[in-house]
Design brief:
The chain is α/β, with parallel strands linked by helices. The protein is built from 5 helices and 4 strands; from the N terminus they run βαβαβαβαα. The protein has a domain at 1-79: 3-Layer(aba) Sandwich (Rossmann fold), CATH 3.40.50.2300. The protein is 45% helix and 19% strand. It has a 4-stranded parallel sheet, with helices on both faces. The longest helix has 13 residues, at 102-114. It is elongated and about 60 Å long.
């Protein structure tokens, strides 16, 4: 089994490898989304561990969801990221995808106002 681990801090690399490797497991550690994408294209992973320290780190989750949905992912999120997710769970919101279409914005605003 191959496991991808994305962490920002390289200080614990050897300790993490020592702890997780064994029993047929091979661990690949990356320190950025770019490194993770390279690893994903070079190896077939069954599992991944991703540390999210900021909203920009979530890009790897989107990438894996789009291209490698079979990989089981464990997310390590700091309190700030967890708070951001919980805010969106509590707020009634809709999404308008870029590029912005004024007609779509007008439609969303009209729908929102009519529900009040």
């Amino acid at each position: 089994m191959k496991i991808l681990i994305q962490l920002r801090d390289a200080a614990a690399d050897s300790e993490i490898k020592e702890f997780t490797e064994g029993d047929g497991k091979k661990v690949y550690i990356s320190h950025s989304t770019e490194e993770s994408i390279t690893q994903l294209s070079n190896h077939r992973f069954e599992k991944a561990v991703v540390s999210l320290r900021g909203i920009n780190d979530a890009a790897i989750l989107k990438y894996m969801n789009d291209y490698y949905p079979e990989i089981k992912v464990v997310v390590i999120a700091n309190k700030t990221f967890d708070d951001i997710i919980s805010i969106f769970k509590k707020v009634n919101y809709s999404i308008i995808h870029e590029p912005l279409q004024l007609s779509e914005l007008k439609s969303q605003l009209t729908n929102t106002l009519s529900q009040m």
